[in-house]
Amino acid sequence: MVRRTKEEALETRAGILDAAEKVFFEKGVSRTSLADIAQAAGVTRGAIYWHFANKGDLFTEMFDRVLLPLDELKAASINPEEADPLGRLVEICTLCLRDTAADPRRRRVFDILFLKCEFVEDMGPVMVRYQTNMREGLGKIEIGLRNAISKGQMPPDLDTKLAATMLHAFVGGSLRDMLFLPDSTDFAEHAQQMVEAMFDALRLSPALRTGGNSEPKKA
Asked: What predicted TM-score, i.e. pTM, was given to this entire model?
C-alpha cells in the first residue's frame, strides 16, 4: 500500500510537470498562475504545493528533468579516470543540440526558457539559480578541457577559461538560433559536424593559446 502511494505521488508530480510545460509554453511563464497549472493537471493547488514550493521551484524542476540524460556524460568528462574526456565533451554538446532539434519536449522547454520566461518578481530566485547553473556549467567545461589536456587531446597551452566561455556561448547561441530560425539549419543532421568544427577551432586557434595575442601582427 505504501509503495502504491509513492508511485501515485510520482505520477501526480510528473503530471504537474507535464501540465506546467504545456501551459508555460502556451501562455508564457509570467502570465501563468499555479491555478492554471492545477486546472491543466486536474489537481488542486494544494497538490501542487505538496510537491513544489512555488512557481519558480516548479519551473526549475521542469527544466532540470530534460537535462538529466546529460548528467552521466558531464560526470565522465571531468573524471580523471576517463580515457576520452574530449569525446565526452563532444557528445554532451552534440546531444544537447541534436536532441533539442529532434525531441519536442526538449524544444518546448528551451523555448520556454529562452523566449517565454521573464526573470521578474517571483521568478527572481530562478534567475539566481540559472546564473549559478551557468557558472557551474562553465566551470565543469573548463575542468573537462583540462582533463582533455592531461590526456594529450588538446594543446597544453590552451586558454581553458576562454575556450570554455566560447564553447558555452556556441551551444547557447545555437539553441537560440534553432528556436528563432528553425528552418535555417538542420541541427539534427549537422549537430556533430558543427560541434567537431568548434572543437577544431579551440584546438588550432593561436588566439586561444595562453599568452597568445589576437591582435594582427604588424608588417
From this structure: 0.82
